[in-house]
Design goal:
binds iron/sulfur cluster, 5-stranded parallel β-sheet, 14 strands, alpha/beta, 15 helices, Rossmann fold, 43% helix, binds 1,3-dihydroxyacetonephosphate, 361 residues, globular, single chain
Length: 361
């Protein structure tokens, strides 16, 4: 992967010209190209996606697209890395803007996780299954693959934790403390049996006794977007709208998930709204582009954000029309810009952990 700056001329083009260029490039590439788009993308980008989905569905799609030469991933870096690992060797994956990272994924790196692993081994030996959330770099997925663990997404975190507890007594879950805690709680793991691991402190800030008593070791990481929702937002909504149903992503803090009516992955949120009764009222706790799109697509239902002052995922939103047009027109010329290529020695282990994720649902 190497960085090529976008040709600035794309920023001087009008929206309708960019739309026309993207459509023309898509037509020219035909079946040789698949565009995958995450639900958090801008409306003006997601409309070009051949498949839209949450990170689980998009991984399935990347694995299933065996014919296309190119996969353009409208999402964030860890998703494009996973698409590269899951797609065939002849297929090339491009992320329209390489700066589209994920703040949560950046909160765990391989050195800190290996240090944590060694510390855990010295206290509780081989009793730990390492589970990484999809929102992590490929070398962390390789780490869990090498150590008999798995990747999960918010769509199958519970199934993966159940699988883990069939293997061993405890789980190291990274990098999202909230998803791990929320799913553990839903499964009946007491909150007191889930300890937080702060990578900046010796033994993660825990006594050996607390580590021995733990069932889930939660890495101290979070999504800065979802973490902004709090219990007061939910309470205020319920005061104003007596019949509102609160539907949140499990990356939200535990106090929010505990007070919500329903919690689940981005795909679950979309499906719940699609299947909801006309006239029903919903407050949704997830990224604002998706909430706004659901409100627009379902005018027969009342839909608001759990927090009206919610901010967007800035990294997801780096994928814009100019970058998409630039990447696609380069593909037409046979040039893959902003290619995401995971090194073979990482991919060979990461695919084991990703395939477990796809198999355990
Ligand atoms: P999903 O797994 O629900 O797509 O979530 C990915 C993500 O980054 C949410 O913030
Ligand atoms: Fe990462 Fe949060 Fe953005 Fe999802 S919403 S991509 S977890 S920063």
């Amino acid at each position: 992967m190497y960085f090529v700056p976008i040709d600035e001329k794309y920023y001087r083009m009008r929206a309708d010209e960019l739309d026309a260029r993207i459509s023309a490039a898509k037509d020219a590439l035909g079946d040789r190209l698949v565009v995958l788009g995450h639900h958090y993308q801008h409306d003006d980008v997601i409309k070009f996606a051949d498949y839209r989905g949450d990170s689980f569905k998009l991984s399935q799609m990347a694995a299933a697209q065996t014919e296309a030469d190119y996969i353009v991933f409208c999402g964030v870096h860890f998703m494009a890395e996973s698409a590269d690992i899951l797609s065939g060797p002849h297929q090339r994956v491009s992320l329209p803007d390489l700066k589209a990272g994920c703040h949560m994924a950046d909160m765990a790196d391989i050195d800190a996780v290996e240090e944590c692993w060694a510390d855990l081994m010295s206290v509780v030996g081989e009793t730990v299954v390492p589970i990484t959330y999809m929102n992590s770099a490929a070398d962390l997925k390789a780490f869990v693959g090498r150590n008999q663990g798995a990747v999960c997404t918010s769509a199958n975190a519970r199934a993966i934790l159940e699988w883990s507890f069939d293997q061993k007594r405890r789980v190291l879950f990274f990098p999202d403390e909230h998803l791990g805690r929320n799913v553990g709680w839903e499964m009946g793991v007491p909150l007191g049996s889930m300890i937080l691991w702060d990578p900046d402190k010796p033994n993660g800030g825990n006594t050996p006794e607390a580590i021995e008593d733990s069932r889930i070791v939660l890495w101290k990481g979070n999504c800065p977007v979802h973490q902004l929702f709090n219990a007061k937002h939910v309470q205020r909504l319920r005061e104003v709208f007596a019949d509102i149903q609160v539907l949140v992503h499990p990356e939200c803090k535990h106090e929010v998930v505990e007070q919500a009516d329903l919690s689940g992955s981005t795909g679950f949120i979309v499906k719940t709204i699609e299947e909801a009764q006309p006239g029903s009222q919903w407050a949704i706790g997830t990224e604002l582009h998706l909430v706004n799109r659901l409100a627009k697509e379902h005018p027969d239902k009342f839909i608001v954000s759990v927090d009206p002052n919610m901010c967007l995922c800035t990294t997801m939103n780096r994928i814009d029309r100019p970058h998409l047009a630039w990447v696609m027109e380069n593909l037409v010329k046979g040039s893959v810009v902003n290619e995401i290529k995971v090194a073979d020695d990482i991919a060979e282990w990461a695919i084991i952990a990703l395939n477990r994720m796809l198999d355990i649902v």
